[in-house]
Design brief:
The chain has one domain (3-93): Alpha-Beta Plaits (2-Layer Sandwich). Helices cover 43% and strands 31% of the residues. The chain contains four helices and four strands. A four-stranded antiparallel sheet has the order 2-3-1-4. The longest helix is centred in the C-terminal third of the chain and has 12 residues, at 60-71.
């Protein structure tokens, strides 16, 4: 299944929510599954973004729907990237 990298940055509202209910972070994974994706890996990071998620989805349309749905809640700003395994990338270059 295709993999995507979702980079998210909390809004002020999102930071307040996480401070009050840290488990909300994992609850969102269930929302991703309900929308047709699966969180494969998840990291809290320091720097420009607050979280990095590796997500599987059957296609670009599904990940676009997930990204729009999560972003529309007002708690995060999101950037979604397509992830290509290095071996597949090299094979396509040959």
């Amino acid at each position: 299944m295709p993999k995507f990298i979702m980079l998210s940055k909390l809004t002020d509202e999102g930071a307040t929510t996480i401070k009050k209910n840290p488990e909300r972070i994992k609850e969102v994974n269930k929302d991703v599954e309900a929308l047709g994706g699966k969180v494969v890996d998840q990291y809290a990071v320091l720097g420009e973004y607050d979280f990095v998620n590796v997500v599987e989805a059957p296609d670009v349309e599904t990940i676009a729907r997930i990204s729009v749905e999560l972003s529309s809640r007002g708690s995060i700003h999101m950037r979604t990237l397509t992830a290509i395994p290095v071996d597949e990338f090299i094979a396509r270059l040959k």
